[in-house]
UniProtKB/TrEMBL annotation:
Keyword Nucleotide-binding among UniProt keywords: no
Sorted UniProt keywords: Carbohydrate metabolism, Cell membrane, Cell wall, Cell wall biogenesis/degradation, Glycoprotein, Hydrolase, Membrane, Polysaccharide degradation, Secreted, Signal
Official protein name in the record: Endo-1,3-beta-glucanase btgC
Organism: Hyunsoonleella aquatilis
Any one GO cellular component localisation term in the record: extracellular region
InterPro entries: Beta-glucan_modifiers, GH, Glyco_hydro_17
Domain of life of the organism encoding this protein: Bacteria
Function: Glucanases play a role in cell expansion during growth, in cell-cell fusion during mating, and in spore release during sporulation. This enzyme may be involved in beta-glucan degradation. Active on laminarin and lichenan.
GO biological process, one term: polysaccharide catabolic process
GO-annotated molecular function: glucan endo-1,3-beta-D-glucosidase activity
The keyword Cell membrane belongs to this UniProt entry's keyword annotation: yes
Amino acid sequence: MMKKLLFILSICLMYSCNNTKTKDVNIQIETTTPLAEDIFGNPEYLAMSYGGYRYADHGKEPTIEQLKEDLKLLASLKVKLLRTYKVHKPQAINLLQAISELKAEDSSFEMYVMLGAWIDCKNAWTDGEPVHNEESAANEAQIIVTAHLANKYPDIVKAIAVGNEAMVKWAATYYVEPWVILKWVNYLQGLKKEGKLSKDLWITSSDNFASWGGGGEEYHVEDLNNLIKAVDFLSVHTYPMHDTHYQPDFWLEQEGLEGKTDMEKIEISMLRAKQYAINQYENVKKYMESLGVNKPIHIGETGWASFSDGHYGTNGSKACDEYKEALYYQHMRDWTNEAKMSCFYFEGFDEPWKGGPNSGNSEKHFGLFKVDGKAKYVLWDEVDKGIFKGLTRNGNPITKTYNGDKEALMKDVEVPPTSEEWHANKE
């Protein structure tokens, strides 16, 4: 029933936006804000993936004031470019309103958005069998609403991403074949040519590195090739943390660790994680260039969880803790800033609704901040600098996790296992 209600809401939005298609969508609002080409890849505009949900119940939407709390915290970290995921829930729409209000209150406030349109296959998230070569009827509403919002907030929305990990085949409940993404990317590019969207608005899809041709040959299809030619840039996801379980060879490799201290082993392992991400990016770039295409590539999503009681915890790859999260965050910023790429780091804040009912599921622990506003180790120096002074989260002042006791934090930091330890734990 909830899916039906959401779909009805989407259709209602689609109707109102269809009216704007014939009336105001041709009106190009002149703005003095920087263009996408000025923002993407510019280290002065750090990027972040954003979800502001504070409760285990995903139906409890953050208020405008709560969104403003988050925006001020992110802005204090010099984050000026956010990525959202869908428009069939109010959060993205309210986020744009919150940004607009903050800009009205303070002319120096800057925040821009890559607005996501969620894309599903037929029967996704239902009791029916997913039909991956047919699309959900709700996709059209997602696209039309994002186009409408891009025109309503041209000073804020600088890019649209069609789908989130919508082509990667391990997304078994909802993935689509590339022709679906290509269809809607071409539709939006057509609106740009017709003057119904700003010519400066960038269009992409945000997907796993393999979906962009950087993995197995099963992804190397003509529709993907045409998609790469159709987008304005490639938004690529890379998750070495997940692959400490699924592809652990790089994580378990002991060469070069002989005679090293535990801390040296951890730091070497995290540098390997950085190189693993770079290798996935380079594989995408190599495939793109094999098509005779040369377009910008940005990191649409990457991150490292601070806790896991599952695959990535004590009895698994021992990957997750606040210390390793901090190392990975800095490695990703260093690499992408130097390479002039945007990195939509996942994510600003922990989201308790993710990953099911288990509180120890790693999906709930990717934030740089905890839900109550405690800053994880990655941000302790920023707390010391006072950049969060006067700012709050859920009304709470920003303080350090572990009460700022690094010795206590380090007791939870484990050395990655050897191959023998790994296999022993799995038996």
